[in-house]
Design a protein that fits this description.
With about 190 residues, the protein is α/β, with parallel strands linked by helices. It has two domains: about 50 residues, Ubiquitin-like (UB roll) (Roll); about 80 residues, Translation Initiation Factor IF3, CATH 3.30.110. It is about 35% helix and about 30% strand. The chain contains five helices and eight strands, in the order ββαββαβαβαββα. It has a four-stranded mixed beta sheet. Strands 5-6-8-7 form a four-stranded mixed beta sheet, covered by helices on one side. The longest helix is centred in the N-terminal third of the chain and has 17 residues.
C-alpha cells in the first residue's frame, strides 16, 4: 500500500535505519517478524516504521479515545415556566438556568400557555423579557423567540467568558478584607 519509491525506515526500537526502497524495507520487516507501517505519509520521503500493525491500530484507537475524553459535550437543557408562576418557583428555576449556563450547557426556556392564558399572550412575553433580563450576566439569547399558540420559547447560550484562562479561579480569594478580621488580629 506504500506508494513512494523510497522511504525513511525506523526500526522496532525507534532507531532510524535510513532511506531505502520499499521492497528492501518490506523484506527487512518480514525478517524481523513485523510489518512495515507508514506513519507519516506526508513527509518527504514518507516515514515508515517496522512494528506490529495490530499494535499500531490499537495505539491509534487509544489516542482517538483519549482525545474524545477531553472534549466538552454541550447539552441542551430545557426549563418550563408558566405565565402565572409564583416568585419562589421562579427563583428556583432561575437558579437551575444559571447553573446550566455556568456549566457551559445551552438552555431552552419554554413558557407554557394553557387555557385562558392564551387570550393574554403578553403575560408570557413579559415573563420572557424578565428571564432574559435576569440571566444577562450568565448567558444571552441565541436566535429569536419562537411563538406558538401554546408556548413561547427561546434558546439561551452561555456568555463568553474570555477563553480558557478565564475559567481558572482565583485561589487566593478576594483581595478585600473581611470586616472584623483586622480587629481580631490587633488584639491577638
Amino acid at each position: 500500500m506504500i506508494r513512494a519509491r523510497e522511504i525513511r525506515v525506523i526500526d522496532e526500537e525507534k532507531r532510524q535505519v535510513g532511506i531505502m526502497p520499499v521492497p528492501e524495507a518490506i523484506t527487512l520487516a518480514r525478517q524481523k517478524g513485523f510489518d512495515l507501517v507508514e506513519i507519516a505519509p506526508e513527509a518527504n520521503p514518507p516515514v515508515c516504521r517496522i512494528m506490529d500493525y495490530g499494535k499500531f491500530l490499537y495505539e491509534e484507537h487509544k489516542k482517538e479515545h483519549e482525545a474524545k475524553k477531553h472534549q466538552k459535550q454541550v447539552q441542551l437543557k430545557e426549563i418550563k415556566f408558566r405565565p402565572k408562576i409564583s416568585i419562589h418557583d421562579y427563583n428556583f428555576k432561575m437558579r437551575h438556568v444559571q447553573r446550566f449556563l455556568e456549566e457551559g450547557n445551552k438552555v431552552k426556556v419554554t413558557i407554557m400557555i394553557r387555557g385562558r392564558e392564551r387570550s393574554k399572550p403578553e403575560l408570557a412575553q413579559h415573563l420572557m423579557d424578565r428571564i432574559l433580563e435576569d440571566i444577562k450576566e450568565h448567558g444571552r439569547q441565541d436566535g429569536g423567540m419562537r411563538k406558538q399558540d401554546w408556548a413561547l420559547s427561546a434558546l439561551l447560550v452561555p456568555a463568553k467568558s474570555g477563553g480558557k484562562d478565564a475559567k481558572t479561579k482565583d485561589t487566593q480569594g478576594s483581595p478585600k478584607e473581611v470586616p472584623g478580621n483586622s480587629q481580631e488580629e490587633n488584639h491577638a
